[in-house]
Amino acid sequence: MSTPRFALPFLLCLALLAGCSRNDPQAALEAAVQQLQDNLEAKRPSAVIEQLHAQFGAQQHYDRDWAARTMTLLFMRYKQVKVIALSKNSHIDPTYRNKGYTQAQVTLTGAQGLIPESVGHYSVKLEWWLEDGEWQLARLDWE
């Protein structure tokens, strides 16, 4: 098959996906959640920090600086980092359309080789704020 036969459907799919994320806040929120997971697994701390709101807080006393230091240590210690979302559910606040929430059951693993050296299971709650058309992580809590 020729390249033009694939090009049109490919471009159409990209246009549809781009349209969904801009016009559908729910789809954009879910994309932000996936992007956070992808950035963590790809060990891109600067990309993760860009997703954090300026007023980011975790467990009611950690801030963006703590997040940056923690990621740096984690990424230096482990060659491979996996974030496995066993379940996740995101929704937009029905009253405040600029707030979104995600609840997830997550397994976090770290390894130098093929076999994980560290495994932890967490129940996480994320609060997202919509700023200038982008969902940013504002609050993070876990058990």
Number of helices: 4
Strand content: 35-45%
Count of extended strands: 5
Structural class: alpha+beta
Along the chain, the helix and strand elements come as HHHEHEEEE
Largest sheet: 5 strands, mixed
* Strands ordered across the widest β-sheet: 1-5-4-3-2
Shape: globular
Q: Taking all residues together, what is the mean pLDDT?
A: 85
Give the % helix.
Answer: 40-55%
From the N-terminal CA to the C-terminal CA, the straight-line distance is 52 Å
Radius of gyration computed on alpha carbons: 17 Å
Structure description:
This protein is α+β, with helices and mostly antiparallel strands. The chain has helices at 3-23, 25-41, 45-51, 64-77; strands spanning 52-58, 80-92, 99-111, 118-131, 134-142. A five-stranded mixed sheet has the order 1-5-4-3-2. A hairpin with a 2-residue loop joins strand 4 (118-131) and strand 5 (134-142). The chain starts with a helix and ends with a strand. Residues 1-22 have low confidence and may be disordered.
Question: How would you briefly describe this protein structure?
Answer:
The chain has 143 residues and is an alpha+beta fold.
